[in-house]
Design a protein that fits this description.
This protein has 379 residues and is mainly beta. It has helices at residues 2-19, 21-27, 226-229; strands at 55-60, 63-68, 71-74, 81-86, 92-97, 102-107, 113-116, 135-140, 146-151, 163-168, 177-178, 189-195, 198-206, 212-219, 231-232, 240-245, 251-256, 264-269, 279-282, 288-292, 298-304, 311-317, 361-362, 376-378. The strands form six sheets. It has a four-stranded antiparallel beta sheet, with no helix packed on it. A four-stranded antiparallel beta sheet has the order 4-5-6-7, with no helix packed on it.
């Protein structure tokens, strides 16, 4: 019996490594430099430091921290906590990951546990670790009653490939609904984002050459209808993932690799079910988890401060990707209008406006955050 348990543990770990590709892809991008990141609460902002609006929640070393008015506060102890998102009433939906399973909890903003939504540990005295389950990336719909998540069911033995599910906040997965059916041995479908009329999410697929690529998909109804109604919003060779919708619902941010060892920050118009022309706004950083400011002032994301260094928090102001329209041209000088007029009384030429390059702002320097974990930004 013990040998069977050990074999099951080994197979579960093996399938986790080969299955949840999206999580390990991001986790593999973490730095392995010798200097350990500092606890965020040790950072003291300088008097003239740039301050983000609202309260931002992010993760370091299995603990959730909040950033408000330039200061970090520890919300949970270090214990596998990750992937925070917001409920409609301002609480947090978070994941707690153990060695063989993960569950979703609702916490208040100070870390007090309010509710456990899933119970994915194998039954007591079960020596078959294949009976454990995984739940990731919870996100509440605008109705305040429905939670979308990535869940490893249907499940074939120890294979761990995620599908998108929904469940009632007060009902759990026993009343859940399967929205997508993932491709085996790819990691599956990740990071659902509810939108009006459906959801968008990251779908991992196997390309013709055997490599695993990602696309942003949209579906407006649960499986099996999604086989006919679901559609890709990005192309396979763009290799896009981690979608984030702006507060007004009109724009989408994502990261796209275009088959290279870098992740660009890309934004595009979004009409609820399709996207417009894509614009790369950052192409020289390893960007992860773009998140819109609740007031629309910009986009926060994670990226290393230096090559092979831990992931830090950055902010890209709105003018970097949506510059304001040019102001009205100055009125032409009147004919014969003195020294300022042009020769022969023709209108003075309007000089071109100066080109202002808006660069991202590095918010942290020594902390090191979890690039596999979403950020949650409250007003």
């Amino acid at each position: 019996m013990i040998s069977r348990f050990l074999l099951g543990a080994f197979l579960a770990a093996l399938m986790l490594v080969t299955g949840i590709s999206t999580y390990l892809y991001l986790g593999g991008r973490q730095s392995h430099v010798s200097a350990a990141p500092l606890n965020p609460t040790l950072q003291t902002p300088s008097p003239r430091a740039f301050t983000l609006p609202g309260t931002l929640f992010l993760v370091q070393d299995g603990a959730i921290y909040s950033l408000s008015a330039g200061r970090f506060h520890q919300v949970t102890t270090a214990g596998g906590w990750m992937q925070p998102s917001l409920t409609v009433d301002g609480n947090l939906l978070v994941v707690r990951k153990s060695s063989f399973y993960s569950d979703i909890f609702e916490l208040n903003r100070f870390g007090k546990r309010l509710k456990q939504l899933t119970f994915n540990a194998a039954p007591p005295r079960s020596y078959d670790t294949g009976n454990n389950h995984w739940a990731f990336y919870p996100r509440m719909a605008s109705d305040g009653k429905t939670v979308f998540l990535s869940y490893d069911k249907p499940k074939g033995g120890y294979e761990v490939d995620m599908s998108i599910w929904s469940m009632p906040l007060n009902g759990g997965l026993r009343q859940g609904t399967d929205w997508t059916y993932s491709q085996g041995y790819t990691g599956g479908d990740m990071q659902p984002v509810p939108v009006k009329g459906g959801i968008i999410y990251t779908k991992y697929l196997r390309a013709n050459d055997g490599s695993i690529i990602s696309q942003i998909w949209f579906v407006n109804r649960p499986y099996p209808y999604t086989l006919y109604a679901g559609r890709a919003l990005t192309k396979p060779d763009q290799d896009c993932r981690e979608p984030s919708i702006s507060p007004d619902g009109r724009s989408i941010a994502m990261i796209c690799t275009y088959g290279k060892q870098i992740s660009n920050l890309v934004v595009a118009p979004f009409n609820g079910s399709s996207i417009g022309a894509m614009k790369t706004v950052i192409s020289n950083q390893m960007v992860a988890q773009p998140t819109w400011a609740p007031d629309g002032s910009g986009i926060a994301y994670l990226a290393p401060g230096l090559a092979d260094a831990p992931f830090q928090l950055w902010f890209l102001p709105r003018n970097a990707y949506a510059p304001p329209p040019p102001g009205p041209s100055p009125s032409p000088s009147p004919i014969g209008g003195g020294p300022q007029s042009s020769p022969a009384g023709s209108p003075s030429p309007t000089p071109p406006p100066p080109v202002v390059v808006v660069k991202p702002i590095q918010i942290t320097t020594y902390q090191g955050f979890d690039a596999a974990s979403t950020l949650a930004w409250a007003t």
